[in-house]
Every structure is written in C-alpha cells, then in structure tokens.
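Deviations from the work plan: none for this task. Representative record:
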Amino acid sequence: MPVVMIVLFGFALSTELKNVKVGVYTPTDDIFTRKLIDRIGESEYFTIVFDAPDKEALDAAFLNNTIEVGMIFQDNFYSTISHDGRASVQILLDGTNMNIAQMAQFYLRNIIGTSVQELAQEVVMADPELSLNLPVEIKPTTSMLYNPQMKSSFNFVPGVMGMILTLVCSMMTSVSIVREKERGTMEVLLVSPVKPFLVILAKTIPYFVISALNLATTILLAIYLLQVPVSGSMLWVVMISLLYIMVSLSLGILVSTLVSTQQEAILISAMVFLMPTLLLSGMLFPIESMPVILQYVSYIIPARWYIDAMKALMIQGVSVKYCIDLVAILFAFLVAITSLSVYKYKDRL
Amino acid sequence: MIWDGSFRKKIIKYVNSDTEPFLREGEIIRAEGLTKCFGDFVAVDHISFSVKKGEIFGFLGANGAGKTTAMKMLCGLSKPTEGRAEVAGYDLKWEVRKIKRSIGYMSQKFSLYEDLKVWENIRLFGGIYGLSDKEIQIKTDSLLERLGLEQQRNMFVRSLPLGWKQKLAFSVAIFHEPQIVFLDEPTGGVDPATRRGFWEMIYDAAEWGLTVFVTTHYMDEAEYCDRVSIMVDGRIEALDAPSALKSKYNAANMDQVFHTLARKAKRDE
C-alpha cells in the first residue's frame, strides 16, 4: 500500500498539465498563425486536436468535451500584426475544471509571449518582402466558459457528489450485509423460503433511500449555499445520480459476496472504491496529465463517468444528449456488476 | 467394457427411481451418495443415511469432519456436488424452495437479531415464513408464556442470558411448525444444567411429531438422541442407537465410542 501511494503521488498524479486538448479557429489562414499554432502544439502541455472551420464548430467541440481549450484568432491576424504591431487572440477556457483552466491560461500566455518575437523574425527572414514592424505584440484575452467567476466550488461539487454516493452506497451496503454474515443471521435468512435475491434487495433499499436523501441534501446545499447553478436539466441530474447510486449499491453487494468480515469490507471499500474515486476520477487531478496506464485504470472507475456527466449537466448545462455515452457506460457498469455479483452469490451457495 | 447386464440394471434402477418413492415408509430424510467437494477437497464423501419421522437424529463428528457441510446441503444452503437426497418428501436438487418451507434451522452462531426486541424477532421470522399477523400475535403470546418470557417481551435480545437466547432461537426456528428442525451445535458455550433444559424443549417438540436433526460434539447430548451417526473424514463411520453403538464397540459411554472411531481420522482439523 505505501509503495502504491508513493508511486501514485510521486509520479502519476500531478496537477501539472500534459497534453491538454486544444482547438483552434483561424478566420484567415497565414504562415505566421500556422507557426504560432505549431509552437503551441509542440509543447508538452498542449496537443492541437481540432482545427475548426468556424466559431460554431469550436463551441460544439467544447460541448462534446473533445477540446478543453479553444483559441480564436482575430480576423486578418497577420495583416493586423504587420500593420499595427499588435493583434489579439481569444482564449476559451473550461471553468468546470479550475486547475486545468488556470494553468492552461498561464502556459499559453507564456508560450505566446516567448515565441512571438522569434517567430516574427523568422517570418521576416524567410520572406524579406514582407514588412513587419518589430517588436510585435500579441494580446491574449481569456474568457472562462461555464464558470465566469472562477469559483472552485463549481469544480468540486460534482466530485463531492460522486464521492459521497460511492462512500454511502458501497461501503454501508457491503458492511451491513457482511455484518449479517458475521453474526450468522444471514444463514437463517437464507434457509428461509424467501428468495436470496429478495433478501439482498431488501437490505439495499434502506441505503437507496439514504443515498437519495444525501443526494437531495448535496444538491440543495450546492445550489443555495454555494450558489452553484444547475444549468442543465434537473430531472436528468437526478436520474443519472439515481443510476449511479444503483451502480454503487451493486458494487457494495459485490464486495459483500467476496468477503466474510466487516473489516475486510471496510478495507476493500476504502482502498478499491474511495481512494481511486478521490485520486483517479479527475476530481483532484486532471486525468489527461496521468500516465496512459492510469488513464486506462480510470476507465473502470464508475465515479469518473458519473462526475463527468454531473459536470456536463450541472455546470456546463449541456442537454443530456451530449452525455448520453456517459449514461450508457454507467448503465453497462450496473448490468455487469449486478450479473457478476449474482453469479458470485450462486457460486457461494 | 464387457457386457454383463450391469448397464441394463442401471437403466432399470434409473427408470424405477421415478416410479418408486425415494423415501421409504416412515422416513422423512433420505440421502444416497451425498457428496460435497470444494475444489480438490472432499468435505463430504458419499454419505448415505435416512432419518425417520419424529426421530431425534444426532449427527456427530470432530470439527472439520464435514457435519456442518452435510447439514447445510440438507437445508438447501449448499448445493451437493454429487448424490441424491430427499427432505420432507422433496428432492434436494429440484425442490429446494419447498424444502425450505418445511424445515426450521438454528445455526451454530446464535442467530437472532440482537438489536431487535424479543417480540420483534418473533414477528420478523414469522413474517418471513409467511404467517399472518393474527397468527403471529396469538402464537407469540403462547410461546412467551411457555418460555416464561412474558416480562422480557420488550427487552432487547442482546440483554438476555445466553441460555435463554438459545431457547428463544429454538422456539423461533420451530415457530412456523416445520416438519424437521436442523440444529447446528445449538448448545455451545452453556453449562450442563442449561443444556438439559434445552434438551427438554427438544423432547417436548419431538413428542408433537417434529423430527430433530442435531449436530453436536457434546457426547452426553449424543445419549439423548434416538439414533446417532458419527462422521469421520467426511464419511459416516457408524450409525445406530447409542445403546447399540456402545455394545458394538464395547464401550461404557458414547465418549469412548467416539474416540475409538475418531482415532481413525487422518484429516487435520
């Protein structure tokens, strides 16, 4: 365990940026802009993934989460810069993840600032015909999408929701079922004519209710105390949360079929559910900056998909069709985990 | 393979097994070649026996001899790897649900809900076995009266002494009037006087026609049974009335009989 933690925190988990997905829109294509974009793409922090044909396409890419940072160059970027010695570029940032947004902004400004003079000279050298008044200046303006006041609560509310639900559902369910096993009351219930499946279902219903109440409290606190607006459809926020609650409950049941003491149940819930949920779900550390292996590991953490969906629905306020894939993935988790625990359950009998 | 007619006999036996009742006259449990393997480990090795209606049947064996596993199979808690058995007239493979309705079970660990009151436990298990509220109420009153627990009706089970808990657990196990009750080491950890009190309850219940299937490792309890079987290393080494076993092995009491047989055990505990 300590080895895993040291390695995770030391190497894998960092708040540094790596390969942030950038989309660009250049109304007038020219060699200078190209070179600048290449410079940004060459850095280890950014990868240019999308060259938008128009501004709407860039916005759509933002909604789909195919890009995390957008850059919109001014009309006639090059001619403006050669005449006036200054031009502007707009940087769009995703306010649902403050860490990434602020750092991306910092690095982008840095790259632009350091490379602009070099580039200008290069361009002039390559084509002396061109007139360029040195020194030139590029003025970046930033605008934060979804979270204009840059409140950090916007970032952590979906994460906290994911964490609380994982904790309550998985840990409490598994512990409560295992406790009956430990005390021997489970055996007595299983000898009775009541179907084993019904016994388990009955055990989970109270936790479903508790989780639903927790969900309501969290959402109300987020809205009224932290003033996080639910910009998307409230109905879908609740529906997807309920789906996630069921996924977590089924995880709890799965654990309870695997272990036989309460300590084991708590340990597994904490190590296998809570820690990955905290560290790998993208709540604290950006998933994009993790090593590839950990990125794959994060795929099997249901909380990751849930938190993504909550960010999209609550903060970005997109309609549900933009995160229907996340819903499908959560649903697949539910089916897979439930069938696995039913299988395990029969196996034990 | 040489054709010697054994195959034909097998077929006839198979066909007949459907027409002839598996349980013989007066029997309530019958097992033939019942086996349970956990991987390579054979916990219960082809045991065959039968239990008569209304009998107190003792199931003896050292720890790890396989008696709890055998009992769990008969209760439908564990699927047999091989073999056939009928309990209360129902096949263990196909009619587990019907078996479960006609048996009661008291596990090794004391297994009532400690954080429920006495009457709440009775109410819960009555409900699980599908008794109506009215039935439960009437039977609860008479049960508590019989046990002398009227005063403790609203007490938490946690605060009862162990001997009383066990009596209550037994009463709850037979609350729905099953045909058979399975008791898995029911009297662990109590003094001999309390144990005797418990066995008086078992005798009372057996007089009403209840069949009692009980595992134990107290040899004085074995004397109370009508018949006992002794398991060693997953097999039944002896099965008879205690008096018959004692004369067969030339022993003064069941303890000696048991030690003569258990000495053969090769399996570690």
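The first helix of chain B runs from residue 6 to 19.
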